């Protein structure tokens, strides 16, 4: 038997490597219940612990909360459900509600996608299509500015296109704008177009792709104080309620608004002054 030198062995090994199928390195949804989608390169970064609040602490949004909870449960159980646009006042719990519902719903994956990565949605959907897990795509603070064509990518995804949207995915988005575009942009297009109603139809129709429009509005004083009381009870903070209410109202006046975010910011200040760790 002739002796084979090292160079020949290396060439044989390299040839076998080229013939072998390449390992599949595409992202998967295995092992975790929450991910963040990144591009360049495409990857799903696992989130071990989602930053969420207890669903019971979200006050003043009972109606929209119940609608989104039911929609999410339907989807998690394999039934039909709608894409949802949560729009309205800042700090009233839009993104907090999505994360809180995810925390209380079994058998569902939450995937956050950044607004600037919307054009990569078709690639992400291909990954989800290969999985048998139910997935919520979540985009926080979604909006589009002048001359921004990104909305067309999202519109195609929500519509489904020729192939159709994967049955195991729905899209939840939050925005301060009901139609996801600035009012002056809509008015400008209406005033300069030959047919004003058709000029903005394409952009406005994007929000029509969401089956649920859930409006979040500023809270009144009673609802604001109920938020404060909810935090006091949840964290077992013993203090004079009348005094706390007076301080909380003063705090809201300095912020020029009453909202869930302002209520929590006051609680952080109060807990710090009292030497209480809200994360404990």
Task: Explain the overall architecture.
The protein is of the alpha/beta class and 280 residues long. It folds into 2 domains: 34-216, Rossmann fold; 221-274. It has 11 helices and 7 strands. The chain has helices at residues 6-19, 62-76, 94-104, 121-129, 151-159, 183-192, 196-199, 201-208, 221-234, 241-255, 260-274; strands at 34-38, 43-46, 84-88, 109-113, 135-139, 169-175, 212-216. A 7-stranded mixed sheet has the order 2-1-4-5-6-3-7. Helix 4 links the parallel strand 4 and strand 5. It starts with 5 loop residues before the first helix and ends in a 6-residue tail after the last helix.
Q: Please report which band the strand proportion falls in: under 5%, 5-15%, 15-25%, 25-35%, 35-45% or over 45%.
A: 5-15%
Listing every helix as H and every strand as E from the N terminus to the C terminus, the arrangement reads HEEHEHEHEHEHHHEHHH
Strand order of the main beta sheet, please?
A: 2-1-4-5-6-3-7
From the 3D structure, determine the CATH topology of the largest domain: Rossmann fold
**If classified by CATH, what would the architecture of the largest domain be?**
3-Layer(aba) Sandwich
Radius of gyration computed on alpha carbons: 25 Å
Q: Could you tell me the number of beta strands?
A: 7
The percentage helix is 40-55%
Task: Give the helix tally.
Answer: 11
């Amino acid at each position: 038997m002739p002796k084979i030198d090292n160079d020949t062995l290396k060439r044989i090994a390299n040839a076998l490597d080229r013939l072998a199928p390449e390992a599949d390195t595409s992202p998967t949804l295995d092992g975790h219940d929450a991910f963040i989608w990144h591009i360049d390169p495409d990857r799903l970064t696992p989130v071990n612990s989602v930053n969420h609040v207890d669903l019971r602490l979200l006050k003043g949004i009972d109606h929209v909360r119940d609608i989104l909870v039911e929609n999410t449960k339907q989807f998690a159980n394999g039934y039909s459900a709608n894409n949802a646009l949560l729009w309205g006042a800042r700090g009233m719990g839009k993104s907090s509600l999505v994360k809180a519902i995810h925390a209380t719903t079994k058998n569902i994956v939450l995937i956050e996608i950044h607004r600037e990565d919307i054009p990569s949605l078709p690639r992400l959907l291909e990954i989800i299509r290969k999985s048998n897990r139910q997935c919520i795509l979540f985009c926080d603070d979604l909006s589009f500015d002048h001359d921004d064509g990104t909305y067309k990518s999202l519109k195609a995804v929500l519509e489904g296109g020729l192939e159709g949207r994967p049955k195991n995915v729905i899209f939840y988005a939050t925005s301060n704008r009901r139609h996801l575009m600035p009012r002056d942009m809509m008015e400008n297009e209406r005033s300069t177009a030959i047919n004003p109603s058709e000029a903005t139809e394409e952009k406005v129709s994007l929000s029509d792709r969401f089956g649920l429009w859930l409006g979040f509005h500023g809270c009144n004083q009673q609802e604001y104080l109920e938020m404060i009381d909810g935090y006091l009870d949840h964290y077992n903070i013993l203090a004079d309620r009348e005094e706390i209410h007076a301080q909380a109202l003063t705090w809201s006046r300095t912020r020029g608004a009453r909202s869930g975010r302002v209520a929590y910011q006051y609680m952080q200040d109060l807990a710090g002054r009292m030497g209480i760790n809200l994360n404990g």
